[in-house]
Amino acid sequence: MTSSSSVRQAREALGNRLREIRKDAGLTARELASRAGWHESKCSRIEHGRTSPADDDLRTWAHLCGAEGQAADLIATARNIEGAYVEWRRMERSGLKHAQESVLPLWERTRNFRAYSSWLIPGPFQTRAYIEALLRAIRDRRTVPDDVAAAVQVRVNKQRILHEGRHQFAVVLEESTLRHRIGGAETMSGQLGHLLSLATLPNVSLGVIPMEADRSALWPVEDFWIFDDAQVNVELVSAFLTITQPNEVRAYDETFARMIELAVYGPHAHALITRAIDSLE
């Protein structure tokens, strides 16, 4: 996967906007390319969303079309599009600490968090030992600078939002998440016990989808977070995906609602967690 449909649609929308600016200026694509000193196919590639325009391309486009006042907005739009799909190697090139810090503004302004996970305990619910084991594995697998201790502390500090402000958390886990051992039996036992205590918080709703649930209509999907109703973040093998297209956000919203219907809560969820703890022995 090299791009999401939301990134592709956003590029096409920017291309349509640039086409309108060109046509309003009375220029053909060939004329604009000639005046800019570009290959004649460049305008077409940009307008169809096949090529991402550089900042200088957009400044030149706006200047030649007599739309200098739109240049700054066009550049901001293009940068936002490119920021929607970020490879891990790019995000983590200066270390894991920076990657952890980059999401802090989003977490602080969000009021309603919804998360689905089929592989890992979600970040705010992780113990320090679980975080350390997880980030060490990421460091080794992706060969990033070793700042694990600092990155762990950032993630631990971020967990204050569980207890401060008016943040609400609705989390749905596959039962298999409780069985995937991160850091060994002792770390997992502590993690699952911590999960039981967090489930009692008034601002936390924790559901677990039992392994014996009928998945004929909806099977496990990629892990994702929904921030209010404005943004979805998805962690892929190679990249970090940010989704803001309203129709795609709605798709994740609908999927989460259906996951809730499959999950069990309260004593039933606690029993599944306790069973997972007992299996560690």
TrEMBL record:
SMART domains documented for this protein: HTH_XRE (SM00530)
Residue ranges the record marks as coiled coil: none
InterPro entries: Cro/C1-type_HTH (IPR001387), DUF5753 (IPR043917), Lambda_DNA-bd_dom_sf (IPR010982)
HTH cro/C1-type domain residues: 18-74
UniProt superkingdom: Bacteria
Pfam family, one: HTH_31
Name used for this protein in its record: Helix-turn-helix transcriptional regulator
Taxonomy of the source species: Bacteria, Bacillati, Actinomycetota, Actinomycetes, Kitasatosporales
